[in-house]
Every structure is written in structure tokens, then in C-alpha cells.
Write a structure and sequence with these properties.
- The chain has 300 residues and is of the alpha/beta class.
- The protein folds into three domains: 4-83 and 260-280, 3-Layer(aba) Sandwich (Rossmann fold), CATH 3.40.50; 85-168 and 289-299, NadA-like (Rossmann fold), CATH 3.40.50.10800; 171-249, Rossmann fold.
- It has helices at residues 4-14, 26-31, 38-46, 59-68, 91-100, 114-118, 129-135, 147-156, 170-173, 177-186, 200-205, 212-221, 236-242, 265-274, 283-299; strands spanning 16-21, 34-36, 52-56, 73-75, 104-109, 122-124, 140-144, 161-163, 191-194, 208-209, 226-230, 247-249.
- The protein has a four-stranded parallel beta sheet with strand order 2-1-3-4, sandwiched between helices.
- Helix 13 links the parallel strand 11 and strand 12.
- It is globular, with a radius of gyration of 19 Å.
- The N and C termini lie far apart (40 Å).
- The chain binds 1,3-dihydroxyacetonephosphate and iron/sulfur cluster (SF4).
- It is an enzyme of class 2 (transferase).
- Pfam families: NadA (PF02445).
- Pathway: Cofactor biosynthesis; NAD(+) biosynthesis; quinolinate from iminoaspartate: step 1/1.
């Protein structure tokens, strides 16, 4: 276990800042300089002054930080941490759609590979997808890779024509409605707060649908004292920190992203010490991928 002074000294030596997603382990969130959802972290990454960014998240997050800061060193505490959904789109399908549909915008969830971003027109996250899609001039929207977020956006923007892809986050897709209904039965006054990556049945029973930061804000500001939370368990740490007196119920099967949990305090300290797991993005991909991220930052 490292103490605060030693960690501060290590960060100073490496001129580093630590970013962590809400799904990272509590011990990692506690040592991070910035903790947030995907959109917040990409905005922060775009303005970092330090020469090193330690990103306690998954691969696409580290790559986004690198794309926005090609001159900086971005270190992943564990370079095996990847997002399953990011690999659920065949870029050939994007090309086919471009040939088939006129007036098409390819809207890519930030949970995607750099190669997919290069084939896209704009990136979105779960907290800004509706807003950005509404602002696009195009009638046809190819939404990739997440079918669940895509369906949620399509419901809010009925004036556009959506083409979907069959990708999903296994952690949210495999959450069972029966578990949510059992929780509702046990806690009839609890509001159901769901991430838009959840499957359709869960979304249809939710009182609020939003990103991780949206869920945190809703739980903090709502007068209700009981919430059923349909997203990854890592968010519990900030929910409890914000208000330990409120009750938060998760499905019994505990939705856990094992990739996010590869980020341990030991692995953060290790990369700070030895500078390993530096993210590499091929030079020719940086500018075209950056274009989609900058467009998101401008439109959001
Ligand atoms: P947000 O942080 O944008 O809510 O997304 C959740 C997620 O799946 C990150 O991988
Ligand atoms: Fe990817 Fe799902 Fe893990 Fe988020 S929770 S990183 S979408 S696998």
C-alpha cells in the first residue's frame, strides 16, 4: 500500500496526472486527480498540461487521450484492459452503408477502436449522443457500435432515420429484467436509474436513463432516498460518497466490468514508477480519429 506522500512524489517525478472512470475500483478512484464519465474524461484529457497521463480505464479511453495529446505519454495501468463492445463493429459494414445511403452521418460511440473512429464522422458518448445527433444536418444516421444506445437515441430523435449495428456491452446487455423487477418488489419506493447501454426491457422500466454522471446527478438531486441502479457496480463508490444515507440497490448478479477492474492501485503505482504500458496510436490514424473527437467536443 502506498501512502499519499509517496504517490505525490511519484506523480511529480513523472509529471503525471491520474484519470479514472467511475467503473474503476474505489482505491483507484480515490487516488485519481479526475474521476468521471467518458465525456468528462475526454474533455479533461484534451486540456491536460502534465507530460504524462495515467488513464485508469479501458483501451479506447487511453487511445482517445493519446489522440488528443499525441506529444504526451499516456500510460494504461494494465494494458489488457479493453472494452468488448469496441470490437463489435466490422468497418466494412460502414463502407457498405456509405455506398447505400445518401446524406449519411456515421455516428460512433466513443467505446470504439481508433480504426472505427477513422471511418466515422463524429464521436459521441452516452451523455451527449442525443444532443449531437439532433444537431447533425444529415437525415440518415448510422449509429455504431452499440445497438442499445442507438435505440435510445433514435427514440429521442424520431425525425431521423437510423441504421443500427448489433454491438452491445455484455455487462449491461445481460442484466436481467427479472432481477430489476424483484428489486422493485422488495423496494417499491425506489426509482430505477439505468444506463442507456442496458437492454430494451430494462430501459422500458427505468424512471431515469442516463450516463454514469447523469445517474450520479439524478441520485444526488432527487428527493427519493432509494434507487435501483442498472449499471456497473463501480459507480457505487461515488454514489455512497455523495450521500451515504441513501440506499442503492444493484442486481444480485452484480454487474461488473472485469476489464475496468484490472486497474488496481498496484498497477497505477507500477506504471508511475517504470513508465510502462505506454499507449501507441499509428501516426496516420491520429489526425482522422482526432477530427471525430474534436467535432464531438465542439458540438456537445
Ligand atoms: P459513460 O461513462 O459515458 O456513462 O459510459 C459508460 C461506459 O461504458 C464506459 O465504458
Ligand atoms: Fe466496455 Fe461495457 Fe466495460 Fe464499459 S462496462 S468498458 S462498455 S465492456
Amino acid at each position: 500500500m502506498i501512502n499519499d506522500e509517496d504517490l505525490t512524489a511519484l506523480k511529480k517525478q513523472r509529471n503525471a496526472v491520474i484519470l479514472a472512470h467511475y467503473y474503476a475500483a474505489p482505491e483507484v478512484q480515490d487516488v485519481a486527480d479526475y474521476v468521471g464519465d467518458s465525456f468528462y474524461l475526454s474533455k479533461i484529457a484534451a486540456g491536460i498540461k502534465c507530460s504524462t497521463i495515467v488513464f485508469a480505464g479501458v483501451k479506447f479511453m487511453g487511445e482517445c487521450a493519446k489522440i488528443l495529446n499525441p506529444q504526451k505519454d499516456v500510460l494504461m495501468p494494465d494494458d489488457r484492459a479493453d472494452c468488448f463492445m469496441a470490437h463489435m463493429i466490422d468497418n466494412e459494414f460502414i463502407k457498405e452503408c456509405r455506398n447505400k445511403f445518401e446524406d449519411l452521418a456515421v455516428v460512433c460511440y466513443i467505446n470504439s477502436t481508433t480504426e472505427t473512429k477513422v471511418c466515422s464522422d463524429v464521436c459521441v458518448t452516452s451523455s451527449n449522443a442525443v444532443n449531437i445527433v439532433q444537431k447533425l444536418p444529415n437525415k440518415n444516421i448510422l449509429f455504431i457500435p452499440d445497438k442499445n444506445l442507438g435505440r435510445h437515441v433514435a427514440m429521442q430523435v424520431p425525425e431521423k432515420n437510423f441504421i443500427f449495428n448489433d454491438g452491445f456491452c455484455p455487462i449491461h446487455e445481460h442484466m436481467r429484467i427479472q432481477e430489476i423487477l424483484a428489486l422493485k418488489k422488495a423496494h417499491p419506493n425506489a426509482a430505477v436509474l439505468a444506463h442507456p447501454e442496458c437492454n430494451e426491457e430494462i430501459i422500458n422500466t427505468a424512471d431515469y436513463i442516463g450516463s454514469t454522471s447523469g445517474i450520479l446527478n439524478y441520485a444526488a438531486q432527487n428527493h427519493n432516498t432509494e434507487f435501483i441502479i442498472a449499471t456497473e457496480i463501480g459507480i457505487m463508490h461515488k454514489l455512497k460518497l455523495a450521500n451515504a444515507k441513501k440506499n442503492y440497490y444493484f442486481p444480485d448478479t452484480v454487474p461488473k466490468c472485469l476489464n475496468m477492474k484490472l486497474n488496481t492501485l498496484d498497477s497505477v503505482v507500477k506504471v508511475l514508477k517504470n513508465g510502462s504500458n505506454s499507449v501507441h496510436v499509428a501516426e496516420e490514424l491520429i489526425e482522422p480519429a482526432r477530427r471525430t473527437l474534436v467535432r464531438m467536443l465542439e458540438l456537445a
